[in-house]
Amino acid sequence: MEKIKCKNGHYYDPERHTNCPYCGVDINDFMINRESHTANYGNVNDMESYGKTLPIQDIMKEKQIEKKVEPVVGWLVVTSEKNRGMDYRILAGKNKIGKSSTNEIALCHDESVGQFEHANLIYDSYSSSFYLTLGEERGLVDLNGELILSDKKLKKDDHIRIGNTELLFIPFCSETFRW
After folding, report:
1. pLDDT for 89-147, tens place per residue?
2. Are 70 and 80 in contact (CB under 8 A)?
């Protein structure tokens, strides 16, 4: 799975997203190609030394990337002091949350967040329901000030704390609208 970088510095999988899931920059803008450096995505600063800048047309020719649209089903918005207002798109299915940029929701700014799968936010398109689950990491997760020990169904405006990052859950899809 090759990651690319949008012009605002966010890394994402072009086979999964046609726009940057963090800032919405279109894939047709210039990107960074991470051709042979897929082993270490743990530290975004280390990634800066890899890759080359190519127009997206060249990347698409090399990889035969087809544009796919994955509509947003909700958002997480940072409410804690550090990175307040930053938002993360939630897509249908399982969204892994962790510090590494290989997670669908990458909390790279928080050293206390587990690297690969601290937690998961799941959207079930059949029931239009959202769930928060514990991941594989050792770190704790709070929902509305209470430690979660099992899967929890989310509702609008729930407060989630992962590491030192506090997030507000905002659903887009619901019983009244779904893709």
Report:
1. 999 999 999 998 899 999 988 888 988 899 999 999 999 999 999 998 888 999 999 99
2. no
Q: Please list the alpha-helical segments (H only) found in 30-76.
A: 44-47, 56-63
Neighbours of 138 (CB within 10 A): 8
Helix, strand and coil content of the chain, in percent to the nearest 5, comes to: 5, 35, 60
pLDDT of 73 > 90? The answer is yes
Distance CA 171, CA 46 (A): 34
Q: Architecture of 72-171 per CATH?
A: Sandwich (2.60)
Token pair belonging to 165: 């990052």
Range(s) for CATH 2.60.200.20 in the chain?
72-171
